[in-house]
Each structure stands twice: as C-alpha cells, then as structure tokens.
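step=encode ok
step=design start
structure_in=
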C-alpha cells in the first residue's frame, strides 16, 4: 500500500455506486444494485447474507478478480477501471491476499512449498521465501506440519495453510470468500478467531464472507447483503478493532 493509506488518508478499498450485471442467455441477473462501501486500513469486516445475495460478487470486485458493470472501485486511492490488466495484477499482487472456500492448495506441494509459492512467483530468493513461509506457518500453528502435503492435513489445517499463503506477501488486505464453508462448526470458529488474532496483532485488514450468522459474534463490523444491496442489519465500522483476550495490538 502507498503511504497515504498507511497513514489513513485514503481508504484501502472504496466502492462507489457499484453495480454488477450478469447475462445468462436472454436473462440478466443484477447481482449488485448500487453499492457504496469503504474498507479502512486494519479493519475486520464480515459480509454476511443468504446464498445468492451477492457476497462473492462483492468479494471478487474488491479483489479486482472481476470488474463492475457501472460505478467505480478504488484500491488504495487508485481507480481500478482505467488500469491495464498488467497494472491491475500488479496492484492486486502487491496489496491483496486471497483465501477461498475450497482451500485451493497445490496437492503435489508440501504445506511449506504452498506458502512459499507466491514469493517465488514474485521472484524472491528461495532461502528468503522459505524463511518467511516458515514464519507464517508458525503463526497459524502449523510448524509441526510444514512437510505435509494437503491430503495429509485436516480441512481446518488446510485452511490455515491457505491463510499463511495469503499472508506471506504481507498484503494490507486479505479477502476470504466463505473460508469456513467446508469446515465443521468448531474449525470454522477457530479460523475466524485466527483471522481476528492476525488482524489484531499485525493490523492486516480482513474482509470475509459467510452465510453463517453464528460466526459473527466476535466481529464488530458486519455488512449484511440482501438481494444485491447492503441490508439494514449491518453494523457500522468501528474505529477500535476487535481484540481477542491474550493478544496485543
Ligand atoms: N458468473 C455468473 N454468471 C451469472 N450469474 C452469476 C454469476 N455469478 C453470480 N451470479 C448470480 O449473481 C447473484 C449473486 O451471486 P453471488 O455468488 O455473488 O452470491 P453469494 O451471496 O456469494 O452466494 P453464495 O453464498 O451461494 O456463494 C446470484 O443470483 C447468482 O446466481
């Protein structure tokens, strides 16, 4: 992120009157109907709502994986619409980490190699990539499992590898689209607590989506999606971020 967002002068993400329309054959689907939305540095935001309400579409636009039909998306104060594909990829790789519902780990690579991958793709020397990946895996509590391939890990452990991978490039924002959808309720809760802890300790901003209201108890900013608009049951942003017992700012 540039210095302006680091010192809080511009939001990390800003959506201005964003719409998204999909066309399947003859029939248009308006997935987002004019969204205004801001994520500030260090925020932890839950996007919740029923299936089909527009959560993934919103995450994809925030992560520049897709473009709006109308309206503007600004990342770190920079308007995304006018950028070339290369400039957009560069902005994304520099600033944003992703966690997906199906973990998306490379099956033939170990946990360590999976986490090293984003750094190696960006040209970091192997020794440095290894050191930073080991550090991230330790932060998510997997130092004992670094040599295991994904198939040897539980769903919760695989998602923790994915979180370590999302964090390894030190992004200002991690987008986690339904990160707990394939986990049982205990592991789902542990994943949210882990993300809250990283947010609290390191200041990484998180936006995560879920249809499970039970996961929202400890999240202070909630954005409810309802048929393509932000619903009335949203909780406003808070200047102070959530702290988990035993963690430090
Ligand atoms: N690629 C696409 N092509 C056509 N329609 C789409 C596409 N992606 C999403 N939609 C439609 O847009 C609307 C919003 O979908 P979206 O996936 O954003 O909702 P969601 O809240 O994330 O749902 P879920 O929780 O089931 O993932 C739905 O009506 C969906 O069918």
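sequence_out=
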């Amino acid at each position: 992120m540039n210095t302006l967002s680091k010192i809080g002068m511009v939001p990390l993400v800003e959506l201005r009157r964003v719409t998204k329309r999909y066309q399947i054959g003859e029939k248009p689907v308006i997935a987002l109907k004019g969204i205004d939305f801001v994520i500030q540095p260090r925020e932890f935001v839950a996007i919740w709502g029923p299936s089909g309400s527009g959560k993934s579409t919103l995450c994809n636009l925030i992560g520049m994986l897709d473009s709006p039909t109308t309206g503007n998306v600004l990342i770190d104060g920079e308007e995304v619409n006018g950028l070339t594909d290369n400039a957009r990829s560069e902005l994304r790789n520099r600033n944003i980490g992703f966690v997906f519902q199906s973990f998306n780990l490379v099956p033939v690579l170990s946990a360590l190699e999976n986490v090293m991958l984003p750094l190696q793709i960006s040209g970091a020397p192997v020794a440095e990539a290894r050191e930073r990946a080991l550090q991230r895996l330790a932060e998510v509590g997997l130092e004992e499992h670094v040599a295991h391939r994904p198939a040897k890990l539980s769903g919760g452990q695989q998602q923790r590898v994915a979180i370590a991978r999302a964090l390894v490039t030190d992004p200002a924002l991690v987008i986690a689209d339904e990160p707990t959808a394939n986990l049982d309720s205990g592991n789902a809760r542990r994943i949210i607590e882990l993300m809250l802890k990283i947010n609290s300790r390191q200041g990484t901003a998180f936006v995560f989506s879920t249809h499970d209201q039970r996961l929202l108890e400890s999240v202070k900013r909630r954005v409810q999606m309802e048929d393509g608009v932000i619903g009335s049951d949203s909780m406003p942003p808070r200047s102070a971020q959530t702290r988990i017992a035993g963690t430090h700012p």
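step=design ok
step=annotate ok -> The chain has seven helices and ten strands.
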